[in-house]
TrEMBL record:
PANTHER family in alphabetical order: ARAC-FAMILY TRANSCRIPTIONAL REGULATOR, HTH-TYPE TRANSCRIPTIONAL REGULATOR RV1931C
Gene3D superfamilies: 3.40.50.880, Homeodomain-like
Organism of provenance: Chitinophaga oryziterrae
Highest classification ranks of the organism: Bacteria, Pseudomonadati, Bacteroidota, Chitinophagia, Chitinophagales
Protein name stated in the entry: Helix-turn-helix domain-containing protein
Gene Ontology MF term list: DNA-binding transcription factor activity; sequence-specific DNA binding
Domain HTH araC/xylS-type: residue ranges: 227-325
């Protein structure tokens, strides 16, 4: 494509998806197009953003009930596409023989690159585009996605992942991170930074998706040994909580306890306790004025250094950075 020609960015908005899945990347590319006119000495070219419906109608209803009207339908696109982005996915509405997947398979070889936002990775996987590739999606769907598409190498820690010319991003706002990265790839850091400043964004966010995820899904463990032990563990979190103590409290032998616990939760007792300590530490960091040392003591994390090391291993961000990012926004200002 000539350098002075606009790159056609086709965004496919899925029905019943979050508006930000669609609007976030679209606004980044639109802002970049303006930036190329505003910044002296910038490369020529820019972007044209086209919303293309995957349905028989140009009307798409988003998760919040807003109706958006696409300029076209995917079946009507008759010119070269530079970048294609699938924004979200409707697993209930997209059956396996939906025309979208054949269309994706057919157009993929003609694209410079293809990407997805949030669970839009499901559409790319269903079309076979992710076979054998690294991919990201929303952290909530890690296990389900991996089970459904075993040939895809899923990593939901990064905000976005690139494998060749295939780009996948994590939950909702990660589509903005991906779009900024694509702008930087096309037109350099200065233009991407100009866009980030214009939209009041971070050019590159600290940490990974893991800082947003829930380490333990207790609702799925209610009838397990872990679920029954959970209230007692919460009351004794500052104690050692060795496997011997846990087994004794469950009236089981250590060997049988360890076997059943792993089978029910997929975690060893020690790993479960560690994740529980971090989950509680997160809540203290978000909601309390306790010092780091006090939080480490209450959570049985053996001091500040140990707490930081364990927190970094699970959350990929330091406790202090986590507190700055997730502390309640309703504090009184002076």
């Amino acid at each position: 494509m000539p350098e002075d020609k606009k790159k056609l960015i086709v965004v496919i908005p899925m029905p019943n998806t979050y508006l930000l899945d669609i609007a976030g990347p679209s606004d980044v590319f639109t802002a970049a197009d303006w930036a190329l006119k505003e910044v002296p000495g910038s490369k020529k070219g820019g972007y044209e953003v086209l919303l293309a419906s995957p349905l028989d109608t140009k009307s798409i209803i988003t998760k919040n009930g807003f109706e958006i009207t696409c300029q076209t339908k995917i079946s009507e696109i008759d010119r070269p596409v530079d970048t294609l982005i699938v924004a979200g996915y409707s697993r209930l509405e997209m059956h396996k023989d939906h025309p979208l997947f054949k269309w994706l398979r057919d157009i993929y070889p003609k694209l410079r690159r293809v990407g997805s936002v949030c669970i839009g990775a499901y559409a790319l996987a269903e079309a076979g585009i992710l076979d054998g590739k690294q991919a990201s999606t929303h952290w909530e769907f890690t296990q389900e996605f991996q089970t459904r598409y075993p040939t895809v190498h899923v990593d939901t820690n990064p905000f976005y992942t690139r494998d060749g010319n295939v780009y996948t991003s994590g939950g909702v706002s990660s589509g903005i991170d991906l779009a900024l990265a694509l702008v930087e790839e096309d037109y350099g850091r200065d233009i991407a930074l100009h866009v980030a400043r214009k939209l009041v964004l971070h050019l590159k966010r600290n940490g990974h998706q893991s800082q947003f995820s829930t380490l333990l899904q207790m609702h799925s463990m209610e009838n397990s040994i872990a679920g029954k032990l959970h209230p007692w563990m919460m009351r004794h979190l500052a104690d050692e909580l060795s496997i011997e103590q846990l087994a004794e409290h469950s009236n089981m032998s250590v060997r049988n306890f360890a076997r059943v616990f792993l089978k029910e939760t997929g975690l060893t007792p020690a790993k479960f306790v560690e994740k529980l300590r971090i989950e509680v530490a997160r809540k203290y960091l978000e909601d309390s004025d306790l010092t780091m040392d006090q939080i480490a003591e209450k959570c049985g994390l053996s001091g500040l250094i140990s707490m930081r090391r364990t927190f970094m291993r699970h959350m990929m961000v330091s406790p202090s950075d986590y507190r700055r990012s997730f502390r309640t926004s309703l504090q009184a200002t002076t």
